Amino acid sequence: MIEVIVEDRCTGCGDCVEACPSDVLRVGEGGKAVIAHQADCQTCLLCELYCPADALFVWPEVDRVIGVTAEQALASGQMGAFRRDHGWGEHAATHTNQHWRMGAIFERARLLAIETAAAQNPSNTARHEDIR
Q: Quick one: which of 2, 64, 62, 60 has its CA closest to 34?
């Protein structure tokens, strides 16, 4: 779940706001990104991936807020690690972008969601089979 935006690092570009599929982030009064709906965070890390300033910190916990502060996030040494490890932006020359591999993971998650929904409501099984 997104834990913190380090205001001093945020440039106000809005890339993280645009990348978020759940509208968790908004542009605040000062023109910088703010966390508007933290509980809606899917922990997809797209905000971190698209932030060229490495101003966001997403913790892998998806069910609850841990309460990481900006100071703790900076001290962790993990600010920007997701972008770096995926070869985005300035890291393209030193790290191979393997983000394309997420397609298989998303497909497995989609099929699992269909199976779970069908198990919870057997009357919709035929409709879910058509989606496959």
A: 2
Q: Within 10 Å of residue 118's Cβ, how many Cβ atoms?
A: 17
- Spans of all domains in the chain: 2-95, 98-132
Q: How many CB atoms lie within 10 A of CB 107?
A: 10
CA distances from 45 to 117, 123, 125 (A): 25, 35, 32
pLDDT digits (tens, 9 = 90+) for 3-58: 999 999 999 999 999 999 999 999 998 999 999 999 999 998 999 999 999 999 99
Name the CATH topology of 2-95: Alpha-Beta Plaits (3.30.70)
Compute the distance between CA of residue 83 and CA of residue 13 in angstroms, rounded to an integer.
16
Please give the model's pTM, rounded to 2 decimal places: 0.70
Residues in the chain, total: 132
How far lies 24's CA from each of 8, 37, 72, 92, 124, in Å? 20, 5, 21, 27, 31
- Cα–Cα distance for residue pair 50/39, rounded to 1 Å: 20
